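Intended use. Records like the one below are meant for learning the mapping from a protein sequence to its folded structure. Do not use them to infer anything beyond what is encoded.
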Amino acid sequence: MAQRNDDRRLWPRVGVSTAVFRGGEVLLVERAKPPLVGIWSLPGGHVEPGEAVRDAALREVREETGLDVDIVGIADVHDVIRREQDGSLSAHYVLTVFAARWLGGCPAAASDCSNTSWVAIDKLGDYPLTEGAPAIIRRALALIREP
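Structure written out for the chain above:
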């Protein structure tokens, strides 16, 4: 059994991501680190021990993009499960996905991102996105649009 499989007791890990909206656009970040190099996603990352998930979401957006945002609510709880070719578990993350409004700042790629972009919702198909991202982004947008 590979070492990675022996670490199953350490999974799942807790993470956050945030769909940040400015008008009819959502902020995407291009990942710069394996295994997602070149893939676009929502800004996010790990929750640190003792850190509230909402605080982690705000921190990750700031670290990855430099933006200030206002969290409106939770859009989704999403599992990211990866397996080795033999079917064994290699990673399992449980992500709380927040919907947020842009308050200010100009996005600049930082931390583990190589690029950022405000993307119109109808242009999401032009980007190689993480699995499930378009549906999650649309759920988040529905929260933003609620009165």
